[in-house]
Amino acid sequence: MTKSKISLKLVAPVLMSFFVMSFCDLVGIGVDRVKLEFGLSNTMAQLIPLAVFFWFFVLSVPVGILQDRIGKRNVLNLGMAVTAVGLLVPFFFYSFGMVLFGFALLGIGNTIVQVSANPLLVDVVPDQKRSSFLSFSQFIKSIGSMLAAPLAGWLALVYGDWKLLFAVFGVVSILAILWLGLTPVEESRNTETRATFASSFKLLGNGFIALMVLCIFLVVGIDVGVNAVSGQFLLHKFSSAQTLAESGRSFYFFGKLLGTLGGAILLAKWSSRKFFVGSSIAGVLSLLALIFAPTETLALVVIFIVGLGIANIFPLIFSLTVERYPTRANEISGLMIMAIVGGAILPPVMGWVADAFNITASFVVLLAAIVFILIVSIYGFQKK
């Protein structure tokens, strides 16, 4: 639909869903705390992000098809409801098995939210403001991601239980459901041929689309890998205090927060393709610097720069691909959300490398991923 002005009444509850979307980033604090409390190996601890991000591969395309039939708002509220249940399960029933089950529900809910939130936001903002609001939505998501670790530390210090974080975010999810449910949203409807499994997966035969989907797989793996392993990296390499090590990922998310805000401003003037190349170069250099960081303070600064550098790669890949194939936007969206499963694959690989060698060596996995993205960004920039 085409709108001429912004309605805060419509936009605010949809943006709130992006805050709920950030709750999957609890996977990082979950890895640190659960590993410590249950005495897990690095490999076993990284089953937590696997439990979350596996569902993006399984459910993204089916959720898109369901959304085509029952509407975006209904699907978005369903996703936030599953998210709320996933948060409350480990709060009330705390064991390693129930943590995995709760995080699996969190992954299912987050998959549903990711598929539905972006297109619903597009429906409630003017056409000329879509790119700006899509970038701003990632800013909102980064706020939630950044708050998780320090809030967990504060709850542990004041109330003696970091798991209260699950309850707090569970209640926030329920409030977001009620807010969106009470908001009348006029959704756009697909009146042409509906997307199908066949039409979606057939696009992977297109070399450019396949490369871009693979880049989404890798950049999400980098994002989750830094989130899930940065705390262990600081603990083992620099013997950092537990609270400081957990807060290290907040430096990363603060970098992402500023990066998405800056990206929304700079992309109004800069070429998306050049920005993609620049972001990839920044990612390569910052991950190299992190591997060789000699002090705890410098490592924290570099973790911030990693977040700043790669913050806009996901939306850039999405926008560049849809820009090239605008009539296949629905299928491309499903494939790219499916590729978020990279967050389930790279962290366990990092865990295996950490157990086989050391925690610092595990970051070579992420370095290889960002180097590949840089190569693709140059290819995409040169391709006409």
Could you please describe the fold and organization of this structure?
By secondary structure, the chain is mainly alpha-helical. The protein has a single domain, classed as MFS general substrate transporter like domains (Growth Hormone, Chain: A, Up-down Bundle). The protein is about 80% helix and about 0% strand. The protein is built from 17 helices and no strands. It has helices spanning about 10-20, 25-40, 40-45, 45-70, 70-90, 95-125, 130-160, 165-180, 195-200, 205-240, 240-265, 270-290, 295-310, 315-325, 330-340, 340-355, 365-380. The radius of gyration is 20 Å and the shape is globular. The two termini are about 30 Å apart. The mean pLDDT is about 85.
Number of helices: 17
Order of helices and strands: HHHHHHHHHHHHHHHHH
The averaged pLDDT comes out at: 85
End-to-end CA span = 30 Å
InterPro entries: MFS, MFS_dom, MFS_trans_sf, MFS_TsgA-like
Pfam families: MFS_1
Transmembrane segments: 12-31, 43-63, 75-94, 100-121, 133-156, 162-182, 203-230, 250-268, 275-293, 299-320, 332-353, 359-381
Organism: Sunxiuqinia elliptica
